[in-house]
Amino acid sequence: VGAWMHVEHGLGLYALANAQRRAPTNMHNNAISVNSMHRIRFAQDLALYNLTLSEEVPGFDGAAHIETWNSDPAWQGVREVAEQLTAAWDWCEVVFATNIVFEPLVGELFRSQLVQHAAPHNGDFVTPTVVGAGEYDYAQRDLRYTRAMFQLLTGDREFAAHNKEILQRWLSTWTERSITAARKLQPLWSQSDARPPRFEEAMDTVKNRFVGIVTDLDLQPPSELSH
């Protein structure tokens, strides 16, 4: 879980905070700024939790998340996509790729399908509480404004077809990257004593969720989803 703080910190501070500065209206700025702060707050929660465990649990390695993030093969796909998101220039693409693609396919896969399942069955009822707060921010707040924002584009009377063409290209690009990153996480499913649902079952769940989000925007699920 400690490694996930790098995702939240990077996307909150370097992707979304940067995107909100380049967004065209105060409504966009405010929504994306709050989204940014949600992620920074979640990263801080994970960092403080990690610090508490370091102080209270004998033998707990509070620095392990750094080596994991930098070198663990299972995390390098997630790291690559997160860094690509921080480097994307188009503010709208950053919001779309983060909240419509990366979060359902990678974020919810890790948080909902792994951590929230495995932790309680291994006697850990604190980690799901910490992680659940971040999960709630995305599922109930950030995804909601993102849907509203892009429904305006896909439902526009004059430019809907043009907008959809651009969004479909973004879907293809970021779905392929996110699916690749998600599949590299598979070894994590075998690390706990009490196993979560099978990795392929978890992938099917998040893919179905993703398809629902995409079709609600009147877009087509990309072929890259089958990779």
Provide the low-confidence segments as ranges: none
Overall pLDDT, averaged?
Answer: 95
Largest β sheet strand count, sense and barrel closure: none
Overall strand count = 0
Described by the principal axes of the CA atoms, the overall outline is globular
How would you explain this protein's 3D organization?
The structure is a single chain. The chain has 8 helices and no strands. With 227 residues, it is mainly α. The two termini are 26 Å apart. The model has no long low-confidence stretch (mean pLDDT 95).
What's a quick, concise take on this entry?
It is built from eight helices and no strands. The chain has helices at residues 4-22, 26-56, 64-71, 73-87, 91-121, 127-154, 160-184, 199-216. Helix 4 (73-87) runs antiparallel to helix 7 (160-184) and helix 5 (91-121) runs antiparallel to helix 6 (127-154).
List keywords for this structure.
227 residues, mainly alpha
What topology does this entry show?
Layout lengths: L3 H19 L3 H31 L7 H8 L1 H15 L3 H31 L5 H28 L5 H25 L14 H18 L11
